[in-house]
Specification:
With about 180 residues, this protein is α+β, with helices and mostly antiparallel strands. About 30% of the residues lie in helices and about 30% in strands. The protein has a single domain, classed as 3-Layer(aba) Sandwich (Aminopeptidase), CATH 3.40.630.30.
Length: about 180
């Protein structure tokens, strides 16, 4: 899918493959360190790096989308039919149970934009692609765990804060918000 958006940036959105993983992991590390820095202490940034990241299950399930601009991965994000709300492949508390789309919300997961491509509509386009795919799979609601840096995007896309959360799985507590939206 090619996007021509309000920001004048053309990009292609496609499903990620395992071969994309090294570039996605590097993108995520930069996004965490640079885009979260205005909101978190150095200890919280380090904790974020251990509790966030890419979940290979999203790629394996064919639900992780990436945006490509001029041959570079500009961002990524996925939706999931599994119970895990957030975190990477090695994060604690994972739950691969399949959700019931009739009674449970899909999970919007691992949304990252490369710092070189912020404010170009990349995150919004990936989010829209995830929501459309989840709707096509029968989901009527979505939930996600929003970082402080990501919450403005989600609020502008119609998500509301359901709970304020402090993740204590890392070396320092990291504030986030569980957010939801009707699809």
């Amino acid at each position: 899918m090619t996007s021509d958006n309000d920001h004048g940036t053309d990009f292609t959105i496609r499903l990620a493959t395992t071969q994309d993983r090294p570039k996605l992991e590097a993108l995520m590390a930069r996004a965490i360190n640079e885009l979260q820095a205005p909101f978190l202490t150095p200890d919280q940034l380090a904790a974020s790096a251990t509790m966030m990241g890419l979940d290979q299950q999203l790629i394996d399930d064919g639900t992780y989308h990436i945006a490509v601009i001029d041959g570079r991965i500009a961002g990524g994000g996925g939706w999931s039919r599994r119970a895990t709300l957030y975190g990477g492949s090695a994060s604690p508390g994972r739950d691969a149970r399949l959700l019931d789309p009739k009674t449970e919300p899909t999970r919007i997961r691992a949304m990252y934009t490369h710092p070189d491509f912020t404010r170009r509509g990349v995150g919004r386009a990936i989010l829209a692609a995830c929501e459309a795919a989840a709707r096509a799979a029968g989901f009527t609601r979505a939930e996600l765990m929003g970082t402080l840096a990501g919450q403005p995007l989600y609020l502008s896309a119609g998500y509301t804060v359901l709970d304020q959360v402090i993740d204590t799985n890392g070396a320092a507590p990291v504030p986030m918000a569980r957010m939801g939206k009707a699809l």
